[in-house]
Amino acid sequence: MVFTHSAFLYDTDDAYVSLLSGFVNEGLERGETVAVAAAPDRVSLLRDALDGESRSVSFLPADEWYVRPARTIAGWAQILRTAAADGSPFVRLVGQIPYAGPYAPWLRFEAALNRSLAELDGHLLCPYDRKGLPDSLLRAAVRTHPRLHDGDWCDNAGYEKPEEFLAATPEAPWPVSGEPVVVVPVEKSVAGLRALVRDRATAEAWLPADRVEILVLAVSEIGTNSIRHGGADRELRVWLTADAVVTEVTDDGTTGPSPLAGYLLPRQGEIGGMGLWLVQQLCDALSIRQHGGLTRVRFAVRRG
């Protein structure tokens, strides 16, 4: 299996169209699967350049494709796996993130992809507009892509291992203020936590019914992880903010989860080990921090 993840730094629309149309056309000529996720103006440029060949390309609306990083990882993986199952010789993907702060979740996504999709066949090319994006994003693109096109293709000497980049680029926890509405210890079973959170959330209308179940599932998964892998002193807290229900599980374990926790695809056919992956998929935010002898896992479920 060979997965290639490359960044393309461009200055003009002509450069954008020239490289991407060549990348896409070469794949189509070889009978490969091709998919593009980009903003409407970028898609329009590429469609015009491809002319009739654009009918053979799957175009994915960027505002629907880039919602939560883990969901996008799952989406790319599904395309790669489906193409392989259908006998496609290779898969070419173009993914242009519509960056709008905060940047950290999507920078972490770019790093994690290198491990998440490593066992699949394909090439994901990520265009970066050198004139339209801040220097901090362009530097991060260099740090998170093993291959680089900056005038020509090259192996990227500035690439960092995903684990190192993720450790150095934490995701900020969802902000809260005031006292939590729930503070309870996490005992040896999560059954009581599930019942407490479901009952309070339903009775006090924290969330719509379907999102209450997302919250309960996340509490169950994170609580179970804390019981199995954390220390003996464990606690769950819940805050209600204007736009979300925010939950945090803390424990005094000496080692926290891997920097890649929640980003790696569950192995097909295996049962278990999916807790953080599910929470990343279902919740609207997840941050994991270690500070002052505590591991803090905070996740948020939006109200609407």
TrEMBL record:
Residues 4-146 form the MEDS domain. It comes from the Bacteria. One of its GO terms (molecular function) is protein serine/threonine kinase activity. Pfam families: HATPase_c_2, MEDS. Residues 189-299 form the Histidine kinase/HSP90-like ATPase domain. InterPro entries: Anti-sigma-factor_SerPK (IPR050267), HATPase_C_sf (IPR036890), HATPase_dom (IPR003594), MEDS_domain (IPR025847), RsbA-like_anti_sig (IPR047718). Keywords: Kinase, Serine/threonine-protein kinase, Transferase. PANTHER family: ANTI-SIGMA-F FACTOR RSBW, ANTI-SIGMA-F FACTOR RSBW-RELATED. NCBIfam families: RsbA_anti_sig (NF041045). This is Anti-sigma regulatory factor (Ser/Thr protein kinase).
